[in-house]
Design brief:
mainly alpha
Protein backbone atom coordinates (compact mmCIF):
# COMPACT_ATOMS: atom_id res chain seq x y z
CA UNK A 1 0.00 0.00 0.00
CA UNK A 2 1.32 3.45 -0.88
CA UNK A 3 0.74 6.68 0.98
CA UNK A 4 -1.57 7.79 -1.84
CA UNK A 5 -3.75 4.71 -1.43
CA UNK A 6 -3.72 5.11 2.33
CA UNK A 7 -4.53 8.80 1.97
CA UNK A 8 -7.70 7.94 0.07
CA UNK A 9 -8.87 5.81 2.98
CA UNK A 10 -7.87 7.82 6.02
CA UNK A 11 -9.26 11.10 7.31
CA UNK A 12 -6.28 11.44 9.62
CA UNK A 13 -3.95 11.96 6.66
CA UNK A 14 -5.84 14.97 5.36
CA UNK A 15 -6.35 16.39 8.86
CA UNK A 16 -2.63 16.26 9.48
CA UNK A 17 -1.67 17.82 6.16
CA UNK A 18 -4.24 20.56 6.63
CA UNK A 19 -2.38 21.66 9.75
CA UNK A 20 1.16 21.13 8.51
CA UNK A 21 3.43 22.50 5.82
CA UNK A 22 5.67 19.43 5.47
CA UNK A 23 4.22 18.48 2.09
CA UNK A 24 5.56 21.75 0.65
CA UNK A 25 9.13 21.22 1.85
CA UNK A 26 11.75 19.96 -0.64
CA UNK A 27 12.49 16.91 1.52
CA UNK A 28 8.89 15.66 1.24
CA UNK A 29 9.65 13.23 -1.62
CA UNK A 30 12.29 11.42 0.44
CA UNK A 31 10.05 11.36 3.48
CA UNK A 32 7.17 10.06 1.40
CA UNK A 33 9.31 7.13 0.24
CA UNK A 34 10.19 6.24 3.83
CA UNK A 35 6.53 6.44 4.88
CA UNK A 36 5.56 4.27 1.90
CA UNK A 37 8.10 1.70 3.07
CA UNK A 38 6.52 1.61 6.54
CA UNK A 39 3.05 1.31 5.00
CA UNK A 40 4.15 -1.52 2.72
CA UNK A 41 5.14 -3.51 5.80
CA UNK A 42 1.79 -2.96 7.55
CA UNK A 43 -1.51 -4.76 7.13
CA UNK A 44 -4.25 -2.65 5.52
CA UNK A 45 -6.32 -2.65 8.71
CA UNK A 46 -3.35 -1.42 10.74
CA UNK A 47 -2.52 1.28 8.21
CA UNK A 48 -6.10 2.49 8.05
CA UNK A 49 -6.26 2.94 11.82
CA UNK A 50 -2.80 4.49 12.08
CA UNK A 51 -2.51 8.24 12.43
CA UNK A 52 -0.11 10.07 10.15
CA UNK A 53 1.92 11.27 13.12
CA UNK A 54 2.45 7.62 14.11
CA UNK A 55 3.68 6.85 10.58
CA UNK A 56 6.17 9.67 10.86
CA UNK A 57 7.47 8.21 14.10
CA UNK A 58 7.61 4.67 12.67
CA UNK A 59 9.58 5.97 9.68
CA UNK A 60 12.01 7.73 12.03
CA UNK A 61 11.20 11.14 10.58
CA UNK A 62 9.97 13.11 13.60
CA UNK A 63 13.32 14.76 14.35
CA UNK A 64 14.13 15.43 10.70
CA UNK A 65 10.77 17.07 10.07
CA UNK A 66 10.98 19.22 13.19
CA UNK A 67 14.49 20.41 12.26
CA UNK A 68 13.54 21.10 8.65
CA UNK A 69 10.44 23.07 9.65
CA UNK A 70 12.54 25.17 12.06
CA UNK A 71 15.13 25.80 9.34
CA UNK A 72 12.39 26.69 6.87
CA UNK A 73 10.85 29.17 9.35
CA UNK A 74 14.25 30.70 10.08
CA UNK A 75 14.99 31.11 6.36
CA UNK A 76 11.62 32.79 5.88
CA UNK A 77 12.30 35.17 8.77
CA UNK A 78 15.75 36.05 7.42
CA UNK A 79 14.27 36.79 3.98
CA UNK A 80 11.64 39.04 5.57
CA UNK A 81 14.32 40.90 7.56
CA UNK A 82 16.47 41.34 4.44
CA UNK A 83 13.45 42.60 2.53
CA UNK A 84 12.74 45.21 5.23
CA UNK A 85 16.30 46.58 5.07
Amino acid sequence: MTIDEWGQNSDQFFDYLAHSEIYSLPEWDGWKERINQVLSEMAYEDAKGCEFEDLINLAGLAGEIELTIKEHDMDRRIKNIEKDF
